[in-house]
C-alpha cells in the first residue's frame, strides 16, 4: 500500500485533493513558458478545467494503483503548490517503475525536484518493491538531467522522437537506477 503522505527534510508530499485544483492551475500558468518546452499537457490555454481533470484522473489512478501523484508542499506555505511528483509501475512483473516531476518556475534551482525524487526512489524500492526506476528526460532539459545525475541514475540511451511537443518530435534520454545501487 502506497502511503498518501510522505515527508522529506523540507517538504510534505501528499496525495492530490480537490482543494489543489486552483493552486495547481495557478502554478502551471505561472510556469507555462518553461513547462511547455518539456511537457505535452502544458498547453497555452491551460486552466482550471485542466487541473480539475488532472486531479480527478490522479484520484482514479490511485484507486487503480496505476500511478501515484503527489503535491509538493512547504509546511510553512501550505497553500502554495510548488509542483508535482509521481511514481508509477511500468512493468509489474519486471518490477520496473518510473518517476516524473515538475517544479513551478519561481522555485526551481533549489533542490526541490531532487529532494522529492529521492523520497519517491525510497518509496519505490522500499515500499513498492521495485527493482528498477526510470526517468525519461527530454533531450536538452539540463535541469532534469542534473537531478538524475545528482541522484546516481545511469544514462542508458536516447529514445528517438519519443514525444510530440508543440508540433515537434522530441528525443528523450532514459536514465535508470537499480535497487542495488542505492
- Given the helix and strand composition, which structural class is it? alpha+beta
Strand segment count: 8
In what range is the share of β-strand residues?
25-35%
> Biggest sheet, open or closed, and with what strands and sense?
8 strands, mixed
User: Residue-averaged pLDDT, rounded?
Assistant: 96
Q: What is Rg?
A: 16 Å
Shape: globular
Poorly predicted parts: none
| H-E order | EEHHEEEHEHEE
Tell me the number of helical segments per DSSP (H or I, 4 or more residues long): 4
Helix content: 25-40%
First-to-last CA distance: 22 Å
Q: What's the arrangement of strands in the largest beta sheet? A: 1-2-3-4-5-6-8-7
Descriptive notes:
- With 182 residues, the protein is an alpha+beta fold.
- The protein is 31% helix and 33% strand.
- The protein has helices at residues 21-35, 48-64, 112-127, 142-150; strands spanning 5-7, 12-15, 68-73, 83-91, 96-103, 132-138, 154-165, 168-178.
- Strands 1-2-3-4-5-6-8-7 form an 8-stranded mixed sheet, sandwiched between helices.
- Helix 3 (112-127) links the parallel strand 5 (96-103) and strand 6 (132-138).
- Helix 1 (21-35) packs across helix 2 (48-64).
- The longest helix has 17 residues, at 48-64.
- The radius of gyration is 16 Å and the shape is globular.
- 31% of the residues are buried.
Amino acid at each position: 500500500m502506497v502511503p498518501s503522505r510522505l515527508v522529506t527534510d523540507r517538504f510534505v508530499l501528499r496525495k492530490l485533493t480537490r482543494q489543489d485544483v486552483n493552486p495547481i492551475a495557478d502554478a502551471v500558468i505561472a510556469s507555462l513558458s518553461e513547462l511547455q518546452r518539456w511537457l505535452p499537457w502544458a498547453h497555452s490555454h491551460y486552466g482550471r478545467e485542466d487541473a480539475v481533470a488532472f486531479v480527478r484522473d490522479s484520484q482514479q489512478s490511485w484507486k487503480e494503483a496505476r500511478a501515484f501523484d503527489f503535491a509538493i508542499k512547504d509546511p510553512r506555505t501550505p497553500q502554495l503548490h510548488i509542483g508535482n511528483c509521481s511514481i508509477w509501475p511500468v512493468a509489474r512483473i519486471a518490477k520496473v517503475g518510473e518517476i516524473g516531476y515538475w517544479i513551478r518556475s519561481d522555485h526551481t534551482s533549489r533542490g526541490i525536484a531532487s529532494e522529492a525524487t529521492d523520497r519517491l526512489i525510497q518509496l519505490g524500492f522500499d515500499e513498492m518493491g521495485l527493482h528498477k526506476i526510470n526517468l525519461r528526460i527530454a533531450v536538452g532539459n539540463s535541469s532534469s538531467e542534473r537531478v538524475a545525475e545528482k541522484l546516481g541514475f545511469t544514462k542508458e540511451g536516447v529514445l528517438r522522437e519519443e514525444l510530440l511537443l508543440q508540433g515537434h518530435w522530441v528525443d528523450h534520454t532514459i536514465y535508470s537506477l537499480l535497487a542495488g545501487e542505492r
